[in-house]
Amino acid sequence: MNTFYAANLLIYAGIDIIACLALNLQFGVSGIVNFSFIVFQSVGAYTAAVLSMPPDTANFGFQHYIGGYELPFPIPWIGAVVAGGLLAVPVGLVVLRKLRSDYQAIALLVLSVIANTVITNADKFLGGAGGISLVPSPVGDRITPRTEPYEYFYIGITAVCVAVAFLVVNRVVNSPYGRSLRAMREREIAAAAIGKNPVQLKMTIFIVGGMIAGLSGAILVGYINVWGPTVWLYPETIILFAAIIVGGRGNNIGAILGALLVPVGFEEVTRLINSNGTLANFGPPGLLSALQWVAIGLLILGFLWFRPQGVRPEPRRVFEGGPE
Amino acid sequence: MNLFIAAFGFGLVSMSVIAIAAVGFTMQFGITNMINLAYGGVMISSAYVAYYLNKAGVSVWIGMAAGALFGSVFSFLLNRFIYAPFMRKGTAHLGMVIVSLAVSLMIANLLLPIVGYYPVSYQEDTGGLIHLGPIALTRDQFIVIGVAIVLMLAIHALLTYTRLGKAMRATAANPTLARNCGIPTNRVIDAVWLITGALCGMAGVVAALNAGTFVIDNGAAFLITILAAAVLGGAGQPYGAMIGAVIIGLMTELSAAAWSPQYKEVVAFGVLVLVMVLRPQGLLAKRGALAAAG
Question: Is B99 on the interface with A (CB under 8 A)?
Fold first, then answer.
């Protein structure tokens, strides 16, 4: 276990925690089944990438993308946050206004598949199927990337972002506003009857969640320096859903726990099982990764069946003077 | 101009394939209240069943019957052992959507190591071109259109003239009332899964035949087109799904001729978005997507 492995693990954990906090705000607290969550993360990643990269004529023009502004560090990330929020506006206006909640889920799932198809086929827009590579690391001109100090620096900024995301989400969830969200989740008609506007609540949360998702994408692309359609296929969203369901719907600590257990823990355990490579030739090619997905499915079904409230259930909020 | 007439011919084939699939999907939703996102997965599994039979020397059409049988049994078991228990347990509507998505993920990934990543195709003599006016299609494509017409008429007859069909409609309208009138709704629902599963399996084989070559990922693409057709017609409405299939089938093929075949699903999605904005209840339904989730 060397420093790089540990740093890698910590940074991935941070990114997954941020993503799970945002998804928990949408799905766990407000009941929006955002099956296109990964699209918002991806929009953040693409935005951060094209804002920080040189124009596509650089490097002999081997890849094609729009933009290329070479902006200094915090600006691409801020751009990613804004892009995530901006994307949420049209999507939310189409999906969240009139449709029944299960239709919303389907529409978002379809959006996720279609967005991926479009980006894959539009090869001049964001690199097409090959994606974009050589995305500069943030502050890479002052601290050399892929050195120990840089890893510590990146862990630091990731941690700051985790803290900010947690504070924002926690503040929303524990405020009177969060109470309105939970009321809407439990019974939308009743919430509307006492004067809450469900569309407005959903739109706000959709935008806030989209912004946080965009941030998580920016952190990820700054670290791995590449982005392409294959890293944001729709099943990636299902992993995050599995994390929320395992951790505990509606509970922020549960979302963090879920992020550590499913995307981080699960991947690492399967990697460790296979660390000496003996399983590499086990069964037909691709068997192990396929079985990983099957296990994610089983995890979701198992938790929904045996413990739908998750490892850390949402705290039951009791108000003084109310009936027991 | 000739290009568009040819595309119209392909549109006829496409709409036949989509109609078979979308009617099954929408009946599952209308009668059992289950949005089965694993539908595409069952379709592609059935297509592979037919593929292995075909590889062993059996004709594609017998393979299609086998695919229908497989889809039927598979869907029935899926409901018996996964969906129905979760529903009995009181899992909410949205929870069921997540369950079916997890199931679809599992089907695709259990299948993957068995069938591999590489595209496959049926060994079939397509029987040469048959010209019908300016439209030229292969014999197989005409058979697909014929199969679809026969199936649509059969579904119409089933729903209109048989006791089972009437029981299905009663169950769709109000399950509690249907049960109180002495309709064995559980057996009706079993029958629905068997029948729609057969449609699903058959649709999988003809869709694979129509696509030429296929891989596992086609399951997701099938699902999107079906969702578009079903939602366009008004979810839960078999006749609506038929109309939706006609529109989506024609539009995807004409747009492929005018624009690019890579964006077929994108066009289907565009239709879906338009419907969701302008008429969320679909063409035929009175309430459909607008009603509060049960």
Answer: yes
